[in-house]
Amino acid sequence: VLASIQIGWNLCQLALEGRADIQSVVLTVTKNIVILGIMWFFFSRASQHFELIIQGFQNAGKTLSGSGTMSELINLGMRTVTGLFDSLRAVPGSTFAKIPEYIIAGLCSVVILLCFSLAVLTLIIGLCKLYLSAMVALYFVGFASCDYTRGIAITAYKSVFCSSVEVFVMYLLFGIGNQIFPSFFDDVQTMT
């Protein structure tokens, strides 16, 4: 419907401008058909394109980061807390004398676990946003056939792409954290 309105509007513009000769009409119709064909090719397979974009960025992020699941991130938080208490136990002295250190370590452990839990929650929200934007974008893809509404469909593609990049960066940050935290506590244990 939008495509026929677009072609009709362009033909009316030609008539109003006084350029309604056969060459201008054929050129306008051909230009609109070519543009609509290109848009139809991209947007008729939108669900496949969205799935490729989503899976591509997720797989690249998981591969580059070295950690692929959220449970691995929670396990990293638990290993970090365990490493904190292990390094504290390695310090010579009586247990009674180390009570202030244990209290501070306990508070730090709670903060560390909350930070890792928030990181996992952020990833879950990012994944939900990604799939929700892909589902919503499928409905706006049909607007690509008209010049005046084509921006809606392109913006829908961009939102899926931007959300995929966001999830990719989150996976990379998790991978960096997975590399930094264990080596940090190994260094702390060798210093004690």
Brief overview, please?
With 192 residues, the protein is mainly alpha-helical.
Task: Report on the architecture of this protein.
The structure is a single chain. With 192 residues, the chain is mainly α. 85% of the residues lie in helices and 0% in strands. It has 6 helices and no strands. Helix 3 runs antiparallel to helix 5, helix 3 runs parallel beside helix 6 and helix 5 runs antiparallel to helix 6.
The structure class reads: mainly alpha
* Helical percentage: over 70%
Order of helices and strands: HHHHHH
Total number of β-strand segments? 0
Indicate the topology:
Layout: H1 2-17, H2 22-44, H3 46-65, H4 70-89, H5 99-140, H6 150-191
Helix pairs in contact: 1-2, 3-5, 3-6, 4-5, 4-6, 5-6
Q: Keywords, please?
A:
192 residues; mainly alpha; 6 helices; rod-shaped
